[in-house]
Amino acid sequence: MRRDQSPTQRGSSPSPNDMISDNMARKQFNDMIPDNMTRKQYKKGDAFSVSVTNMSTDFDFQSSNKLFQKETIFDEWRQQDGNLPRHSNSDKLKPTEMVTERESPALGSTFEGDFMTDDKIPLMGLTLSKRIALFKRAINFGLSYSHVVSVAGMSVSQMVIQVLGGTCRVSLLNHNKPPVVAALVSSGESGKVAVTSALHLSQHGINVKVVLFATPKGCDGLVNILKKCKCVVEKGLQGLPNVIDIVIDGTQDRSTLLNWPDWMNSVIDWTDQSTAPIVAVDPQHPTQMPRSPTPPKFTCSLGAPLLSQGQAGRLFLIDIGLFPLAFKEEEIPYRSPFFDKFIIPLNRCVKQRLNSG
Prior knowledge:
Blueprint: H1 16-32, H2 39-44, H3 61-67, H4 70-81, E1 115-117, E2 122-123, H5 128-141, H6 145-164, E3 180-185, H7 189-202, E4 207-212, H8 220-228, E5 232-234, E6 246-250, H9 254-259, H10 263-273, E7 278-281, E8 298-302, E9 314-318, H11 324-329, E10 343-348, H12 350-356
Parallel strand pairs: 3-4, 3-6, 4-5, 6-7, 7-8, 8-9
Antiparallel strand pairs: 1-2, 1-10, 9-10
Helix pairs in contact: 6-7, 7-8
């Protein structure tokens, strides 16, 4: 594209305004030339050799920055808008957190819990009878128990995959042998979650071995699907391989531990000598037991943490869809701790550690 030409270059006579502007520009340029230099010398020299005192002083950046009061201007904006967050230097974001600021979830907590999330949200520890009443209240409102089992099984599967190494281990690009997971299943509620988790894991390229000590009520269809998907379903521990990456323990529900079947001692002996980490599914320990089960490395609690979970290792809480109204009806102080997650770690408060110790 041809560059636009001035009136003089186009051959037409310049207007009076053009002549005045050219004369002013020439005069300003001549004023910038030092006295000991000619115009030709200045054009060939360094432009930065001009004295600073000869430059225009229309704008002073340092003085202007001193006059800029950021907090005062932000306060004026907040008064006009009312929605702008006030940033504090103490609120530092993690590399994985969103930049948009949110209110601290710890604000507004009016009760002291037995457990605490990483976001400093307290949670009450419940007795088993109180949590059963909470579940019944939620089911009466319309929550399906089959939905609870399905969500819990999927969450346990996601947690197991992360413990195995996530995409570094469970991936098409991984040419090593698939990881081996053993699921121990009893007839109780924990067994239902373990069977559901085994079914999910079998669809993700994981070698799942199910030890079915007893078929949980209503899980005959899931067991048949596992067999048709060529998952190994054993009746005892004898058929398990020597090398196992992780164990899902679905045998520590209250009904199983109270009845204490004959195979329970074999399970404890086997888990005691196994080097594989154990993920316990919602253990519910009664006060008196013939033996203490092998302490797990991870424990998944469903919906609300229990006080009677024994040695739980690293405790995690799974969101199964319990809603605040059910807690309110049972007069349990509660504030949802999940936010953008469905599985969160829990920390025991000091008083709870002292009581359990």
